[in-house]
Design brief:
Elements (H helix, E strand, L loop, with lengths): L3 E5 L6 H8 L2 H12 L28 H16 L4 H22 L5 H11 L3 E7 L2 E7 L8 E9 L2 E6 L6 E8 L13 E10 L2 E12 L2 E8 L1 H4 L2 E8 L5 E8 L15 E9 L2 E9 L3 H14 L2 H5 L6 H8 L9 E3 L9 E6 L3 E10 L2 E9 L6
Antiparallel strand pairs: 1-2, 2-3, 3-4, 4-5, 6-7, 7-8, 8-9, 10-11, 11-12, 12-13, 14-15, 15-16, 16-17
C-alpha cells in the first residue's frame, strides 16, 4: 500500500468476457446485494439507498453468469444516464467498499489499489486511482463519455474496517494521494491522522494543481485545507514524496503568464518549483525557487532593462558591454510583446525571439554554475508562421 499513482482508463471488453470474470462467489454477492433491491427501478434512476449484507458462503446467493452480466449492464446503464454520474459513482463505490472490506479481512497486507483496479476492470468502468499507506482514492468517470465529469471517493482504514466517503473534487483529474497516521503505527508528531489528495483542474492554458486535505474524524473525513493556483502557482504539475525528517512533502512545478511576453501552452515558461511540508497546521511552504533555463534568463534581462536596473541586467549577461548593445537595440523600450519562436527548445543554448510584427533576434546563452547568461545576440530572419 506504499504510495503510488497511476491514471487508469479501463478498456472495453465484449460482454461475453464479463460472465467469465465475474463468476466468483464474492463479486456475485456484491452485485446481487447492491442491485437486488433496485433492479426494477435501475433504468428509471431510482434513488433508493442500497442495503448491503455481509458476504457469506450461503449457496442461495449464487447467481448465474447471465444474471451477473445483466447486473453489470445495469451498472453501465446507470453511468450512461444523462446527469446520473454522481449516483452511478455512489453505487460503484459501495460495491468497491464491500469488496475491499472482505479482502481486507482475508488479506490484510493486500494491495487495495491492485484489487480496486481488478474489480473496476471486471465491471468495464473508467477510473483514476492513487494510493498511500492505508488509503485509496478513486476518481470515477463514465468510460463511454469522460467529458461528462468525474466523482472522487476516498477509502481509508477506519476503526476495525475500511471506510469510504465521497469528497470534494468533482470534475477534476486525480494526480496523487498522501496519508498519515492511519496504520497501526503511531501518528507521530507531524500531525493528526489525515489524507491529502492532489487534483488537476482544467484551465484555459493547461492543468492547474489543486490540493485538498482532510482530517480523519472517527468514521468521517472533514475538510481541513484547500490550496489552489494562488498558493501552488498556476499551471503545471505536482507530486507527493516522503522526505526523511520532513515527512510528507508536496512539490509543484508551475508557471503563470509573464508580463510583456506572449506564451502559448507549449511555449517556454518561467517555472517556479515550490515545496510544501505537511505539518501540524497543514501544508506549509518550504521553498519557492525559479527553475533555471535560458528562457528565464532572457525574461529577467528584459525585465531589468525595462525597469532601468543596470545591475540586474549585467547579472544576466556574460559581458557588461552586452547591456549597452541591448539598449541600443531598443530592448529597454516597451513597444511590443516578446515571444519565443515556434519550435524553440526551453533548455537549448540558443533561442529565437520575436517582438511585435517585424523584429526577430537570435540569442545565444552560456551556462554558468546552475544558471545561464546571455552570451550574444543578433538580428535574424523571421520565419513565416
Amino acid at each position: 500500500m506504499r504510495g503510488s499513482c497511476r491514471f487508469v482508463t479501463v478498456p472495453w471488453r465484449a460482454p461475453g468476457a464479463w460472465a467469465r470474470r465475474l463468476a466468483s462467489p464474492l463479486l456475485a454477492v456484491m452485485l446481487v446485494t447492491v442491485f437486488g433491491a433496485t433492479i426494477g427501478g435501475a433504468l428509471s434512476g431510482c434513488s433508493r439507498q442500497p442495503r448491503f449484507v455481509p458476504a457469506s458462503a450461503d449457496s442461495s446467493l449464487a447467481v448465474s453468469g447471465d444474471s451477473l452480466a445483466r447486473q453489470v449492464r445495469i451498472l453501465n446503464e446507470r453511468w450512461s444516464v444523462t446527469g446520473g454520474g454522481e449516483e452511478a459513482a455512489r453505487l460503484t463505490a459501495q460495491v468497491l467498499l464491500q469488496d475491499l472490506r472482505v479482502r481486507q479481512g482475508a488479506e490484510p497486507q493486500g494491495s487495495w489499489e491492485g484489487r480496486a483496479r481488478a474489480l473496476l476492470d471486471s465491471l468495464d468502468l473508467g477510473a483514476e486511482l492513487a494510493s498511500a499507506d492505508c488509503a485509496l482514492a478513486v476518481n470515477f468517470f463514465s468510460r463511454s463519455d469522460p467529458t461528462t465529469g468525474s466523482w472522487p471517493w476516498v477509502f481509508w482504514c477506519g476503526g476495525t474496517t475500511v471506510q469510504a466517503q465521497a469528497v470534494e473534487g468533482a470534475g477534476m483529474g486525480l494526480v496523487g494521494l498522501a496519508a498519515r497516521g492511519l496504520s497501526a503505527e503511531p501518528a507521530g508528531s507531524d500531525g493528526p491522522p489525515g489524507i491529502a489528495a492532489l487534483f488537476a483542474r482544467r484551465a484555459g492554458s493547461g492543468q492547474q494543481p489543486m490540493l485538498l486535505t482532510w482530517r480523519v474524524a472517527k468514521e468521517r473525513l472533514e475538510l481541513a485545507q484547500t490550496l489552489g493556483p494562488d498558493s501552488l502557482g498556476g499551471v503545471g504539475t505536482g507530486a507527493f514524496a516522503t522526505a526523511g525528517d520532513s515527512g510528507v512533502v508536496l512539490t509543484t512545478r508551475t508557471w503563470e503568464p509573464t508580463p510583456r511576453f506572449d506564451e502559448c501552452a507549449t511555449c517556454p515558461h518561467v517555472f517556479h518549483q515550490r515545496r510544501f511540508r505537511w505539518g501540524l497546521e497543514g501544508f506549509e511552504r518550504l521553498e519557492d525557487v525559479l527553475v533555471p533555463t535560458p528562457y528565464v534568463t532572457f525574461v529577467q534581462l528584459i525585465q531589468a532593462l525595462t525597469a532601468g536596473d543596470r545591475d540586474g541586467a549585467v547579472a544576466r549577461v556574460t559581458s557588461p558591454a552586452l547591456v549597452e548593445s541591448a539598449r541600443r537595440a531598443g530592448w529597454a523600450a516597451v513597444k511590443g510583446s516578446w515571444r519565443a519562436a515556434p519550435g524553440s527548445e526551453e533548455r537549448g543554448d540558443e533561442l529565437i525571439f520575436y517582438r511585435g510584427l517585424d523584429e526577430a533576434w537570435r540569442v545565444r546563452f552560456e551556462r554558468q554554475g546552475a544558471g545561464w547568461r546571455v552570451d550574444s545576440f543578433e538580428v535574424t530572419t523571421r520565419v513565416i508562421e
